Amino acid sequence: MSVSQASTPLSHLLPPLILGGAGFSHQVYRNPNSAQALQVLKRAFQLGLRAIDTSAYYHPSEILLGEALSHPDITSLYSRDQYLLMTKVGRITATEFDYSPVWVRQSVMRSLERLHTRYLDVVFCHDVEFVPEEEVMGAIGVLLDMVREGYIKYVGISGYRIDILSRIARRVQIQYSRPLDIIQNWAQMTLQNDRLAREGLEAFHEAGVSCVCNSSPLAIGLLRANGVPVGDLGDFHPAPSGLRSAVKEAADYVAEQGESMAALALRHSIRRGQSLSTPDFRITTIMGITSIAELEDNLTTARQVLRVSDEPRWLWSADAGPSVEINMIRAREDAQLCAAVHDILGPWHDYSFPSPGDDWDVANKKPAAARL
Q1: Confidence band (pLDDT; 50, 70, 90) for 329?
Q2: Which end of the chain is more exposed for a tag (fewer CB within 10 A), N or C?
Q3: Marked catalytic residue, from 29, 57, 58, 99
Q4: What superfamily does domain 10-241+262-325 belong to in CATH?
């Protein structure tokens, strides 16, 4: 089955930085609200950060983002073609998935309505390792149909397990006679875990994928001084206590050197992604942001790694050319600190979280205990 692709490769559009919509969810923020989303988006757009990644699972992120994007403060200044919108289908709650063709289509249409848009730039199948691969392949087929219908421009998959992401990408290339446009992997091109670079990128590239999103550069808030984030749903972070303790020790050491663990980790991830990018194979970093202060801090940190012109560029865009480069001077300054962090992490360096873990029944898409 042959499926057409967008005329412009996504690698020519995707910027080096993307705003993560999970910051507007109950998982990582207490009382997410429309005022918060509007304020953050207005400032992000002013600074040139105009690519957004969210999910129906990050409730109520899509709703809040849609309200903000349709607000006169945004619509009076920015047309729809001046920003990118990416969302996901398939994951409904922490323990509920639906990859059926009917639900995938219904979820996309609901996302269009929630985000107040006629089309979505990218739609991912969310957390593919939690469901049987055949269901993922069927869902991708539905998304590719919706590309032909004009509802979606590009199609991808997201998840943690690099081996499963690679296998699905190869299957798509064979079954649909075209590659996936993009893959999103989380918390594995970080200061703590670099498996995406070592184990994923070559396999993704061989499967024809042109873009990779490295999300959670701080490993869902683990790599910072003040511990993992706790939202309205409590502490959901998968890091075991030993890893948390090692990161705390490393963060204390970094602070003693006059540096921020979060800033060091973000610079490391952005730098790693940009150093491995080419014009036709782009690695981009998704930053989780919950406030204007966090947004401005993150972009200040990013500017220490990327040379970006003072004038905000559309999307901090892929076509910024020579103005987007790795700052090698800062890279040398960070190298010694990163090496010290790795020494402190010891056996926790490159540790991967179990996903979905032995307590999950992939065949039945439910916790294993639910079978009893």
Answers
A1: confident
A2: C
A3: 58
A4: NADP-dependent oxidoreductase domain (3.20.20.100)
